[in-house]
Specification:
elongated; alpha+beta; 163 residues; two-stranded antiparallel ribbon; 4 strands
């Protein structure tokens, strides 16, 4: 897809000295490439080796002072924190009902609802559907990292608060 012209009659000048020439790569950046010639004496019992040099890749000048890395890779600190705190809070009532701390937190929430008269239990009319309820569990920590308390909230499922 590129227009290229070849000088088929030209020859390589083997007597010229090594020079640095800018090479434009496919991504548009210039890189310096040193062409070196090296005289190697080959003996019959040594295998033939290639004199071909590998091109050195360099960052563009604008990126020389940058630290490159993959931001998607989690750091060691993130992995350790995930391992420490991944299993702390129950996801449903069945998990929470097996721990005395969460049972106490749920009892405190029910007592607060009754004391504040937040909700009132009534008979459900025949043509109405009940409101779904869900427990939300959260462990509160002190600034030192120790557990401060276990907090449980009973919330209605699928409803948004009005702004």
């Amino acid at each position: 897809s590129r227009d290229v012209t070849f000088d088929e009659g030209g020859m390589w000048n083997w007597s010229s000295k090594s020079q640095k020439e800018p090479i434009v790569t496919s991504n548009g950046y210039e890189e310096e490439n040193e062409q070196e010639t090296e005289h190697v004496d080959l003996t019959p019992d040594e295998p033939e080796t290639s004199n071909r040099l590998q091109r050195q890749r360099r960052l563009p000048a604008r990126l020389q002072d940058c630290v490159l890395g993959n931001d998607n890779d989690p750091s060691n600190e993130e992995i350790i924190n995930f391992a420490l705190f991944a299993d702390c809070e129950p996801l449903n009532f069945e998990e929470a009902s097996g721990d005395e701390n969460w049972i106490k937190a749920m009892d405190e929430e029910i007592n607060a609802i009754e004391k504040n008269k937040t909700w009132e239990l009534t008979e459900l009319p025949a043509d109405k559907k009940p409101i779904g309820m869900k427990w939300v569990y959260k462990t509160k920590y002190k600034p030192s990292g120790e557990i401060d308390r276990f907090k449980a909230r009973l919330v209605a499922k699928g409803y948004k608060q009005k702004p």
